[in-house]
Amino acid sequence: MNTYQKELIKATIPILRESGEDLTNYFYARMFKAHPELRNMFNMGNQANGRQKSALANAVLAYAENIENPGVLIGVLKGIGTKHRSLNIQPDQYKIVGTHLIASIGEVVGEAATQEILDAWTVAFYQLAQIMIDLEKGLYEENIEKPGSWNGWRKFIIKKIVQESTEIKSFYLYPEDGKAIADFHAGQFISVQVFVPELDLLQPRQYSLSSASNAEYYRISVKRESGIAPNPSGFVSNTLHSKSEGDVISISSPAGLFHLEKDSKNPLVLISGGVGLTPMLSMLETNLSSIQNKKTIWIHGCRNESVHAFKNQIIDIKKEAQHLETFTFYDKVESHDETSNQIIKGRVDLHKCKEAILLEEAKFYICGPEMFIKTQYEALINLNVNQANIFYEEFGPQLINLN
């Protein structure tokens, strides 16, 4: 890409800031009309609620703003590439995206989108696409070299289902072929693919692994989300909750950049909201089974006791593990909970446990809804925690960029 083309890209930044989501709305409608089969690969819930469109608009804008040095985006691109590997995205699909994105720019921007600008965006997109293709090629190669791993989809049997709360069920997934499965780092996720009758589509979703790695099964713990028409978010979780032991689903091998550092001896502070406790539970169990048993602070918030998954397991672990300290926040405290010194009324407030969490060289992991992550991140910064020691996982399209 030459200097003049970069200047043309930068000239479109004001338009992208003002009309980026209009562009991505048009783009997805155009692409799905031409390639309806791609609806099986995209999260149609996030299409309906606008999160995927917002994420793409933010990504296009960020690329334009950093066109002089796209290397600064490599951390974000690695996260996207990791999800793409988990979803089995292939190089030829970038050409489909490019064709419809460039056409959408021309059709939405109108007369302001000169041929020179469209040519510059074509060069820019395929430069980015090649970065992603090369990155993902390395991820596919790295993944397939792991013992028990695979690329694409593999069938697993749901051998056990456990009701963890009024909203959350755990699914124990065993390989249908009986062959070995890949291990994983605590905090990583798998993609699940199921057929959703209400949509007449296959739908993929990512779910964090909620147990320590083992050689027999993967466990995911899924919150049943309400799917209210016309917003299909929650259709996959509802489909999973309707499954029975013995049913078969397809999953990808473990992936994800949000995970414990191998052999790290740093104290851990695990902060979760709602179903965001799932990767934290994997971290907690992994730490418990290791010989390190480093100091660990478990902080969790949810609406009330009935929706609190794994409550008894955490209590049992605390009884055995001297290195573990817990703080639980309920929006609403039932009368029989008030005698428990583990329960704090209200939303998670890190200032209420700052004496416990401000440990030297501690690593902080946050997972939960978007506003929960932002709130806890800002609280840690206000408590003078080193930004480099804060890690977070946002479920769904990446809309948060705090680091």
Number of helices: 12
Q: Bin the helical content.
A: 25-40%
SSE string, helix = H, strand = E? HHHHHHHEEEEEHEEHEHEEHEHE
Inertia-based shape: globular
Q: What amount of the residues lies in strands?
A: 15-25%
The value of Rg in angstroms is 22 Å
Count the beta strands. 12
In this structure, how is the largest beta sheet organized?
Answer: 6 strands, antiparallel
The low-confidence runs, each spanning 5 or more residues with pLDDT under 50, are none
Distance between the termini: 28 Å
Structural class of the secondary elements?
alpha/beta
Q: What number is the mean pLDDT? A: 91
Sheet with most strands: strand arrangement: 4-3-6-1-2-5
In short:
The protein has 403 residues and is an alpha/beta fold. 40% of the residues lie in helices and 19% in strands.
